[in-house]
């Protein structure tokens, strides 16, 4: 990319669970290179990172992420037997609410858009104004995991169900460029490895073993039979990857950063440092390939 004139950037951030921490690395590299990010459009975890950035609270969020250990993630999961999902999300989202406070999207210093899905109609719900926290909470309501958000006369779920990389919502003007971050890309790199501590045979048999915050696979033992989280996550990732491919073809960005989907699991937030650093490295790699 030719950075001599430093064009303004419109940033599009995809959904993808804990892999979304890579968005932080991309944002930091853009700022380090002197680009002005004038708009952020995000879906699910991309909406969370984008909303925190637009509200000026991304550093506080990053600092908090860097303190998390595997056991901390488990403590943040407020499990429920509700029929719509098995995590209410109130604990983790209360932390985000404390950071951003009561804010209106239209009052943010940077233009921001979050995407959610109407569970009943399948329509895309676009938040360009209104309560920031409600928009973030709706956008990240992963079906089957987090309980949906009641909104007006309907319920909202993760925007990634229909539009995981909402490139259609940005309209660059003049010399503005679009930088998109796909965190559901194929797996060309080795996944970030776990430290071997605390794994037991019992862990491997647990129905939440794959990518749950306190459990993980034994790679040396080879693949294990898929459990509920395996099925939900893998199916969701494949669906989003296909939707992203179609969106990129229809609305090609100037720079496309690709984060492999085997980088980490959906809830591996204790890997923040490694994932953020990966985001910065993959941004540099994407720029080298760009013709902008």
Description of the structure:
This protein has helices at 22-32, 45-54, 58-65, 70-76, 90-100, 132-139, 201-205, 228-250, 272-289; strands spanning 9-13, 37-43, 85-87, 111-118, 124-127, 144-146, 149-151, 154-158, 177-185, 255-260. The protein is globular. The chain is of the alpha/beta class. Strand 7 and strand 8 form a beta hairpin. Helix 1 crosses helix 9 and helix 2 (45-54) runs antiparallel to helix 6 (132-139).
Q: SSE string, helix = H, strand = E?
A: EHEHHHEHEEHEEEEHHEH
Distance between the terminal alpha carbons, to the nearest Å? 5 Å
Helix segment tally: 9
Radius of gyration over all CA atoms, rounded: 18 Å
Number of separate strands: 10
Q: Structural class, please?
A: alpha/beta
The rough form would be described as globular
Low-pLDDT stretches are 195-220
Helix residue percentage: 25-40%
Please report which band the strand proportion falls in: under 5%, 5-15%, 15-25%, 25-35%, 35-45% or over 45%: 15-25%
Assembly of the depicted chains: single chain
């Amino acid at each position: 990319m030719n950075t001599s004139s430093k064009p303004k950037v419109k940033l599009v951030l995809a959904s993808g669970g804990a892999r979304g921490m890579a968005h932080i690395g991309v944002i930091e590299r853009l700022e380090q290179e002197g680009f002005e990010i004038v708009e952020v459009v995000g879906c699910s975890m991309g909406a969370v990172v984008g909303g925190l950035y637009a509200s000026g609270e991304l550093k506080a969020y990053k600092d908090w992420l860097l303190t998390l250990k595997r056991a901390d993630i488990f403590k943040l999961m407020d499990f429920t037997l509700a029929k719509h999902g098995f995590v209410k999300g109130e604990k983790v989202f209360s932390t985000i609410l404390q950071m951003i406070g009561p804010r209106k999207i239209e009052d943010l210093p940077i233009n921001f858009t979050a995407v959610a899905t109407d569970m009943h109609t399948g329509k895309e719900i676009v938040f360009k104004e209104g309560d920031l926290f409600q928009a973030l909470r709706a956008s990240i309501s992963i079906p089957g995991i987090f309980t949906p958000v009641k909104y007006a006369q309907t319920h909202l779920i993760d925007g990634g169900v229909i539009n995981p990389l909402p490139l259609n919502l940005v309209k660059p003007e003049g010399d503005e460029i679009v930088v998109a971050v796909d965190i559901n890309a194929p797996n060309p790199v080795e996944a970030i490895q776990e430290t071997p501590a605390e794994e037991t045979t019992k862990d491997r048999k647990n129905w939440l073993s794959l990518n749950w915050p306190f459990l993980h696979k034994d790679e040396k033992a080879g693949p294990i039979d898929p459990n509920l989280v395996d099925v939900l996550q893998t199916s969701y990732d494949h669906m989003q990857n296909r939707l992203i491919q179609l969106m990129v073809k229809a609305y090609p960005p100037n720079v496309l950063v690709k984060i492999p989907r085997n980088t980490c699991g959906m809830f591996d937030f204790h890997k923040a440092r490694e994932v953020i650093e990966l985001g910065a490295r993959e941004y540099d790699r994407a720029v080298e390939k760009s013709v902008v």
